[in-house]
């Protein structure tokens, strides 16, 4: 019997795949299972429990598939490991049932954009490709029919921790900066080692695309002795870089032949998106997408919601939803990519942030900070004297009213929180939706009525 802990997208997908392969499956979630997932399990006649864990039943399993949101330190997982019951991720489980090739993306920041862009480049070129993983779609459920030649998979460090035999054909590591360190005993070494699992088990037929400009990645990844093909990329023409930028072109030479790809059609802004684009283009090139098709697809790409997403413009002021920026590094990228004066909305549940890295950009670009959170002390203390105007609120509507009064034509109002959302919102999506709704109601609707 296989026990599945967590009945969200990945857990229910794993249960459906397990049943399809003739395995006995039991699903357990300590929280309340959402009705949509309960219905899926009931329709498939898969036994499950909601609101508790039956330890005896779970610990009699031959294998446990764990939701990435469950830490290894919880008592049930510790007991399972003491009994030598393998604990794996849904991705590891799903990979056993397909011969398709995996293009996998991880990194502290940028992985969702890079995953979506890589998928878009392949799909636009006519490749038989699916999207899965941390992006919010179950790989296991897609593998039941297994109709694809390629899976483009976003992977969090938590998913990678439960992957052992899995092998990516192309692995992409964008960057490693402090995040989720509470899950790694506050050790950057352990966190970096988790991210580097994306390159495990590779052979010479596989490719590891990584950021040569990222100091932490280069500290922990050792190309010597690596069995796959290392493909380092850089914004600049660094020694050893197999892809780099020159004006509006991305120059690639990973296979001994230099190619130039026009990237000026891209709709993505900021230096961080240059890295994301380089990684995606390299992956597309490796699987055989023609340069002209890459250039065409870059112009038609639409990024994920809540990631530097323009949600309105009025009286010369642009309102940008970057609610997915839940750490300092992501905010740095957002600020770096915007060239207009900024009214910045930030705050939420602090994750041990060090805001000093933002001070130079804040002094240069930010005219006002609106702290949106239950406890704003750290943000206020960090930016008082750095940013001319610092205000507080616990209401997204009030934040927009304040921002509207502070912004003038040519400015950007940017929601880029640097914090988790759980003090005032259900998740970062909820926060971004509320921001977009408030912009519509407070900024855009009055203009429409005036007309």
Report on this model:
This protein has 451 residues and is α/β, with parallel strands linked by helices. It has three domains: 2-88, NAD(P)-binding Rossmann-like Domain (Rossmann fold, 3-Layer(aba) Sandwich), CATH 3.40.50; 91-298, UDP-N-acetylmuramoyl-L-alanine:D-glutamate ligase, CATH 3.40.1190; 309-450, Mur ligase, C-terminal domain (Protein-Tyrosine Phosphatase, Chain A), CATH 3.90.190.20. Helices cover 35% and strands 20% of the residues. The chain contains 17 helices and 20 strands. The chain has a six-stranded parallel sheet with strand order 7-8-6-9-10-11, with helices on one face. It is globular and about 60 Å long. The chain starts with a strand and ends with a helix. The mean pLDDT is 94. Cell wall formation. Catalyzes the addition of glutamate to the nucleotide precursor UDP-N-acetylmuramoyl-L-alanine (UMA). Keywords: ATP-binding, Cell cycle, Cell division, Cell shape, Cell wall biogenesis/degradation, Cytoplasm, Ligase, Nucleotide-binding, Peptidoglycan synthesis. This is UDP-N-acetylmuramoylalanine--D-glutamate ligase. Residues 306-419 form the Mur ligase C-terminal domain. Its EC number is 6.3.2.9.
């Amino acid at each position: 019997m296989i026990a599945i802990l967590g009945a969200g997208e990945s857990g229910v997908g794993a249960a459906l795949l397990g049943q399809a392969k003739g395995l006995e499956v039991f699903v357990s979630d300590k929280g309340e299972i959402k009705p949509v997932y309960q219905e899926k399990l009931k329709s498939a006649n898969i036994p499950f429990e909601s609101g508790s864990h039956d330890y005896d039943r779970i610990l009699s399993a031959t294998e446990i598939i764990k939701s990435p949101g469950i830490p290894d330190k919880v008592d049930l997982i510790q007991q399972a490991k003491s009994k030598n019951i393998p604990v794996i991720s849904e991705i590891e489980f799903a990979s056993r049932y397909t011969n398709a090739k995996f293009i996998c993306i991880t990194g502290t920041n940028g992985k969702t954009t890079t995953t979506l862009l890589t998928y878009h480049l392949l799909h636009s070129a006519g490749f038989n490709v699916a999207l899965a993983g941390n992006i919010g779609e179950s790989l296991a459920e897609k593998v039941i029919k297994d109709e694809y030649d390629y899976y483009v998979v976003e992977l969090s460090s938590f998913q990678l921790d439960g992957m052992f035999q899995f092998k990516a054909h192309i692995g992409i590591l964008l960057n490693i900066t402090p995040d989720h360190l509470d899950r790694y005993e506050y050790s950057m070494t352990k966190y970096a080692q988790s991210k580097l699992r994306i390159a495990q088990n590779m052979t010479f037929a596989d490719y590891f695309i990584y950021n040569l400009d990222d100091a932490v990645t280069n500290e922990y990844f050792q190309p010597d002795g690596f069995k796959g093909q290392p493909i380092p990329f850089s914004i600049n023409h660094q020694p050893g870089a197999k892809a780099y930028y020159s004006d509006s072109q991305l120059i690639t030479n990973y296979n001994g032949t230099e190619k130039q790809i026009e990237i000026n059609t891209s709709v993505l802004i900021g230096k961080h998106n240059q890295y994301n684009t380089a990684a995606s283009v390299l992956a597309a090139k490796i699987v055989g997408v023609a340069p002209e098709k890459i250039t065409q697809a870059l112009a038609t790409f639409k990024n994920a919601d809540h990631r530097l997403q323009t949600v309105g413009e009025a009286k010369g002021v642009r309102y940008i939803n970057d609610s997915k920026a839940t750490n300092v590094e992501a905010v740095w990228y957002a600020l770096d990519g915007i060239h207009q004066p900024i009214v910045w909305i930030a705050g939420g549940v602090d994750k041990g942030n060090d805001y000093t890295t933002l001070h130079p950009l804040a002094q240069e670009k930010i005219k006002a900070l609106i702290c949106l959170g239950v406890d704003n002390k750290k943000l206020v203390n960090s930016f008082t004297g750095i940013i001319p105007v610092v205000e507080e609120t616990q209401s997204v509507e009030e934040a927009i009213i304040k921002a509207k009064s502070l912004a003038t034509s040519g400015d950007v109002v940017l929601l880029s929180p640097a914090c988790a959302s759980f003090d005032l919102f259900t998740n970062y999506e909820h926060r971004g939706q509320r921001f977009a709704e408030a912009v519509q109601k407070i900024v855009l609707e009055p203009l429409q009525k005036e007309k």
